[in-house]
Specification:
The protein is α/β, with parallel strands linked by helices. It contains seven helices and nine strands; from the N terminus they run αβββαβββααβαβαβα. The strands form two sheets. Strands 1-2-3-6-7-8-9 form a seven-stranded mixed beta sheet, sandwiched between helices. 32% of the residues are buried.
Amino acid sequence: MTLTVPKVWELLKHFMDCCQSRGWETSKHEDWVKVGNEYHNLLWIRMIHPSTFEKVATMHRCAICEGTSYQVVDVSYTAWLLPQAPPEKMMQMVKETPELSKRNAIYDLSWVYEGKPICLKLNETDSIVFQEFEKFLEDKLGVELKPAYRLSAEGI
């Protein structure tokens, strides 16, 4: 079976369309979803240094475009979508820090982009948007989500 997965930004666009169909507010310019009073930020980045990750992950802020100006809002949850394997230090930081693990999810899509239908995840948030994202990956793309920290210990 050949796995055809769109580039990360196309994948996000398709997911945002699904979010809009659920009645959730999304942005044309940024990758966030608003449900009630909560912002769920989806960041895709090729590579990130653990110290940069820590600074962004602990800030809980995001600039959103409103017309011709920007407003800084509090972000309830952030998902990190990575087409390359994240640094182990970053994974450990989230796994071992309750404040980070409650608000940040990591999706390692590197296997998916190598043609293997597996996405390693580290998601201990209560984000309904991230739960929906996981269903989207499974149902629309045929990707199997596996806990990253268990796989590291067991091997694949």
